[in-house]
Amino acid sequence: MAEPLLSSLPAPGARSASLADVAHLAGVSTGTVSRTLSRPDMISEPTRLRVMDAVERLGYVPNGAARALSMRRTLTVGAIVPRFGSSSFPAMVQALETTLAAAGYTLLLSAPDPRPSYETSILRALLERGVDAVALLGAEQPQQVFAMLAANRTPFVTMWAPPEAGVHCVGFDEYAAAALVVDHLADHGHRRIGYIGGRTADSERARRRLRDLSLAIAKRGLTLCDDALAETEHGFQEGFDAMNTIAQRQPAITAVVCGSDYLAAGALAALDQAGIEVPRRLSVASFNDNDFAAFLHPPLTSVRLPIREIGEQAGERLLAQLRGLDAPVARALPVTLMQRSSTGPVPD
Amino acid sequence: MAEPLLSSLPAPGARSASLADVAHLAGVSTGTVSRTLSRPDMISEPTRLRVMDAVERLGYVPNGAARALSMRRTLTVGAIVPRFGSSSFPAMVQALETTLAAAGYTLLLSAPDPRPSYETSILRALLERGVDAVALLGAEQPQQVFAMLAANRTPFVTMWAPPEAGVHCVGFDEYAAAALVVDHLADHGHRRIGYIGGRTADSERARRRLRDLSLAIAKRGLTLCDDALAETEHGFQEGFDAMNTIAQRQPAITAVVCGSDYLAAGALAALDQAGIEVPRRLSVASFNDNDFAAFLHPPLTSVRLPIREIGEQAGERLLAQLRGLDAPVARALPVTLMQRSSTGPVPD
DNA sequence: TTGTATGCGTTATCAA
DNA sequence: TTGATAACGCATACAA
């Protein structure tokens, strides 16, 4: 029905303008145009003006592929982001993007679906696109990924992921986070607690989280109750279902720890629906990876994970490598306890 | 401390292998190698094997920049995503990514910060990178953006954004969504209602949302109360604050409509903290853009917006254009009412 | 300060 | 089926 949008700006039947076109129109050489755009200070005022005018009139946009081919770099950083839509990754990515953008780099995102070892084909796509560096977001990366990166001499950093030996890695102290939650609960008199977290079979991070929690619990002489343990994907629905499953078993617990905001939200909804009052009959604590745990009803005690900070620091690590300062660093950021609630003392 | 990961795969002090290297090792021409990789069926078996072997041994990865330069396309689609971290965009992006990936395209994401007209520089970066098409996610795009796209003959689609005349656009029927909420509330006897939504000064979408809601409200003979109206950014904190502000005025309303999940979550937290029972004293309804409104406490009535579907359809529109079938289409997806709660009847 | 010419790694055209 | 070779658009070393 409607005509295609053809504003009359570009020459009616041609492809977009090139350096040569600009040079021609301005009556100079391509080299001069190139320099005018990249280092204007090396060009005389009158020439510069003529060139800029031609650029303007032609609506010239440089061809990045040609530039990349010539310069052997793309000013692009690739990021591999599993489970893009959920949890804390968006915030991490945004922080990363901002940090890199400040240095002139653009972020190229890829979200692999969970097919096993699909990461390598994603990584391959990134490498073919000539990314100058790669950020690995909290994924379980097959060893082959690191091999490919090494083979291509591509700088990279892992974010919120198990630190590999000698690899740039930015995360936080997982044990400290677990201890923070456990100490808080113990201080309020809780002895027997449950846990809803990620699948330990699928994720090294989930394994560490559970392990650290167990350690912290043992250290304080508490009990992690087997019948109040659930492993699931991350999400509202999943937290809801997991909490229902646990509640059916009527375990003898007074507190539940949730691995993420989404799980906590789902769990709280399930408890509410089941008429189990929080925190009077059951306290809920969580690892807050999304800055919204604080707004859940009822307010929960949560450990704020430094998500945004991870993104920033990872960006800086990447930039350091791109500048040639690439001593591998594993950096652990501090965690803090956000206590907005009257986490219940043990009920009678 | 640790040695850098240098597996012995690549030649110790060289840059990565090129077609020529592979050709040399396999004893064929570069043309043959190129064809072997792109159309193996046109190559004799023995040659093919020799080439593949060389590829393997050198760990050859094609140079995308060179390919793009030669082929004049990148198999890349750019997306401009405002307010990356919040609300419904991640789900939309993921759906878009999946749809495009199935057709061999990669998505290149850019998240402009809210600086005005920053979009044009973002778009410029995308165009320089040679994206074959662009997806505009629900942003207010300055007219200049469309001009740039037209000048570059770059296919594009707007998602969940005001339809521009003659432009590919995928959204949903905003008025129908508003009417769904209003009818539901009216059917439960509510007469006077409030609204927490986006800033109408900043966003055409917010303006339409408010306008449609007003229309639907008028049509049912209800009243949208001025003193129960709040405009704000989207987010938990913002919804929390807005609800508090409204509550202080003690408006004579029995229901509040929230523009998004995040706002609704914040509003519910505020009501809870203020001791205002939902839905006994105040009903809350929302536009559910994130599939989690249903899990909020207490459950709310919400209109599910077809976020994922927008992403899918937008991807398909883009692909259609890339294949040359580019009759502009404005597509409106249906909306549905999710009623999980006992949206309160009017209290006494 | 400006112009010339070469290389970047592919794809594609045209012969062989 | 394969090989040589010309684009592709830009940056840059070298000349002027």
What does the secondary structure layout of this molecule look like, with pairings?
The structure is a homodimer of 348-residue chains.
Chain A: H1 19-26, H2 30-38, H3 45-58, H4 64-71, E1 76-80, H5 89-101, E2 106-110, H6 118-128, E3 133-137, H7 143-151, E4 156-159, E5 169-172, H8 174-187, E6 192-197, H9 204-219, E7 223-231, H10 236-248, E8 255-258, H11 261-273, E9 283-288, E10 301-304, H12 307-322, E11 330-333, E12 336-339
Parallel strand pairs in A: 1-2, 1-3, 3-4, 4-5, 5-11, 6-7, 6-8, 8-9, 9-10
Antiparallel strand pairs in A: 10-12
Chain A binds a DNA duplex (16 and 16 nucleotides) through helix 2 and helix 4.
Keywords (chains A, B): DNA-binding, Transcription, Transcription regulation
Protein name (chains A, B): LacI family transcriptional regulator
GO molecular function, one term (chains A, B): transcription cis-regulatory region binding
